[in-house]
Amino acid sequence: MADFFGSTARDPSLFTAQVKDVQNLAGRLNSISGFAEEDLAEDDRIIIGQVPSNAVLNSLGQVFFDAFGALVTLDLGLEKTVGGVTTTEAAALVSAEDVSSAGTVNAMKAVVIENKSLPVWDHMTGFTEDPGGMINVVATLAGANPAAVTLAWEILFAER
Question: Given strand 134-142, what is the order of strands in its sheet?
Answer without folding.
Answer: 3-5, 45-52, 134-142, 73-82, 85-98
